[in-house]
Design a protein that fits this description.
By secondary structure, this protein is of the alpha/beta class. 41% of the residues lie in helices and 14% in strands.
């Protein structure tokens, strides 16, 4: 009988999409016989959820979802200046805490000596030092590469965060991507990386959300909160609010779609520091959409997501850039058709005309046409939603993804000296 692979998974984030992804991946790998240890933050969001793997809550970072960012009103000049100063000081303190966390991680895994150490995204140049140190000490390292270039930061300093040490990716014995397009783009940016060490796996579904306990009458409660009538159709945007998500294009498209269909637009998700909510609200007012666009600028509680999806006739992903989308998989899990832009790896996840529609990025007219089509044709929306659910349970199942990763890890362990 083969010995179990001892896999240590490092995820410094304490909440949000990456944590949800890692929770499902660790669960699936453990189901397939891997001895998984997750190293994460002390305020790990999913601590009370069932686990079939070990969790080491090692370091204390910070809350990723600040209620301050959820305010919908515009800031005046002095408020903006103070906010920038405060965030700059806070960023320095957080940077120091993150360096200390990486020191803890490195010392711990060097002492434990697992078979493989798996990471997610690399955000800052200093992380390359610790990753290189682990590799020089003989550890086998892998990465699930969700992102390898910045999407929101427009200044040169921000651009350097991802490219300060391009050789860091050569330290990994295996790098996994969620689309062939992403892999090709990565290799063009990082030619020093051996293509033989790169692999493509699907982004898994969000099936774990279907197992959460839902409060009685939550759906009617949400309808009342949003001011929705029974049976009123909803165009839903769900996910982090940031410029790369194309919300300006969605608002313009909804204004056009409103001329040929009756629905409301619900924008639900946490605003990042890059988004200007005041400007978005002003645009909605200028387009006379105030009574038809609903904002819920919270970090949506996990047990509300299924009810949120139940409200939606169609879920829209008008991204201007993307590698892949965990939010897209949420829509599939709950059997909702999608309209998405043909950017990054999204065309490899959306079967155009079957589980949704693909449109060009920054094309409000085409986006509006597809939204109207699904709003006005309930039979088409239902059929596409059913196929989306089928894909979620088959092509995007975590069991098949875990097996692909394990095959790679077994190959690494059999060939590593």
């Amino acid at each position: 009988m083969k010995n179990k692979i001892r896999l240590y998974v490092v995820e410094p984030n304490n909440s949000g999409g990456l944590v949800h992804y890692i929770y499902q991946l660790c669960t699936a790998l453990s189901d397939e016989g891997v001895e998984v240890t997750l190293i994460t933050a002390t305020d790990y969001e999913l601590a009370d959820f069932p686990h079939n793997f070990r969790v080491i809550k090692m370091f204390h970072l910070w809350e990723h979802f600040d209620p301050e960012s959820m305010r919908l009103h515009s800031l005046n000049f002095f408020e903006k200046v103070w906010k920038k100063i405060r965030w700059t000081l806070r960023r320095g303190g957080r940077g120091l805490r993150l360096v200390l966390a990486w020191m803890q991680i490195t010392l711990y895994v060097l002492n434990e000596r697992p078979d493989i150490v798996q990471f997610t995204r690399i955000d800052f140049p200093f992380e390359a030092f610790f990753i290189s140190l682990m590799r020089r000490q003989g550890l086998i390292l892998s990465q699930i590469c969700h992102e390898f270039e910045p999407r929101e930061s427009k200044n040169r300093f921000g651009q350097l965060f991802f490219g300060a040490d391009k050789d860091v990716y050569t330290r990994f014995s295996a790098i996994f991507f969620h689309a062939q397009e992403n892999l090709g783009h990565f290799l063009s940016n990082y030619p020093s990386v051996d293509k033989k060490k790169t692999y493509v796996i699907p982004h898994g579904n969000s099936g774990w959300l279907t197992k959460l306990e839902i409060a009685p009458n939550l759906l009617p409660s949400l309808r009342r909160k949003y001011g929705l009538l029974d049976g009123e159709r909803v165009v839903l945007f769900f996910g982090l609010l940031s410029p790369s998500k194309g919300l300006d294009d969605l608002i313009e498209a909804f204004a056009l779609a409103s001329k040929s269909c009756t629905a409301k637009l619900l924008i639900a998700g946490y605003p990042t520091k890059y988004i200007d909510l005041g400007a978005m609200i002003a645009k909605i007012e200028a387009l006379n959409l105030t009574d038809r666009v609903i904002f819920d600028t919270r970090y949506i509680p996990l047990n509300e997501i299924s009810s949120l999806m139940s409200l939606a006739t169609v879920v829209v992903y008008p991204y201007r850039s993307s590698t892949q989308s965990g939010s897209l998989q949420v829509a599939y899990t709950f059997g909702r058709p999608v309209v998405a832009t043909a950017v990054g790896g999204l065309p490899e996840a959306v079967e155009d005309g079957k589980n949704g529609f693909l449109v060009p990025a920054k094309s409000p007219v085409e986006l509006a046409n597809k939204i109207s089509m699904l709003i006005n044709d309930s039979e088409l929306a239902t059929r596409m939603g059913s196929y989306a659910l089928y894909l979620s349970e088959t092509r995007f199942s975590w069991q098949s993804i875990a097996k692909k990763i394990i095959d790679v890890y077994e190959s690494l362990l059999s060939s590593d000296p």
